[in-house]
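Lab notebook page, bench 4
Experiment: in silico fold of construct C2
Operator: M.H.
Input chain length: 246 residues
Purpose: comparison with the prior construct
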Amino acid sequence: MTIQFLSNVRRGERYTILLSDEDSDLLHYNWTVNPKGTQYPFNNKLGTLHTTIIERKLGRSLCKGEEVDHKNRNKLDAQRDNIRLSTSSQNKHNRGLQSNNVSGFRGVGWDKRMRFWKSNIKHKGRVYFIGHYEAREDAGIAWNHEASRLFGDEFTEFNDIPNWREIFPVRKSLGYPRTNSRNKSGYRGVCRTPDKKRWQAQITKDNSDYNLGAFDDKHEAARAWNIKSRELYGVNAYQNVIEVDS
């Protein structure tokens, strides 16, 4: 395929817009680029260049909820094999690392409170917790698996980790946050009863408190908390590591 080039000058800056042969007639229009905005080539009559081209490619106008995604994330590359129809979620997912990312991997950040690498993923406007990991590479792999499940491979820019599809890292089973010195049991959700004679277990979800009862042994209270945690949070549940287990 021969690539057509269109140079555009705006405020003394020159841009090169890549087009396919089928759309060479668009060279006759004046396209402007806002360097401080979206950087999409725009024409007052036709609108954005990528929308014009994909509507030609589809033979129809875009429907509500449909967007245009650039595979290589270059907004000036409007070649037909580089643009594709997408949903808003898929379009937003095909992005590079944010400027404040410290891990070098998508969806991975440092949890100062827990002192582990944490993996999160955003889907349909909500952020979902994947897990805590000792190695940032493991957190990156976990993000890759979840992104593949939610978005598929076509729209996902995976973290560049060799053979990640064959690796299934184990999430850290965290007890009570290690920075909380007030906890005397060593287990998340387990503390002394008011009379200091027994141990009680309690867990919270969606602002609702679940009292799991009082126990003679703190390990039994921790087991009860683990069971309820799995029931409420599923695969994303924290799990206490029981010191004495049968």
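Observations: The longest helix spans residues 136-151. The first strand starts at residue 4 and ends at 10.
Next step: discuss at group meeting.
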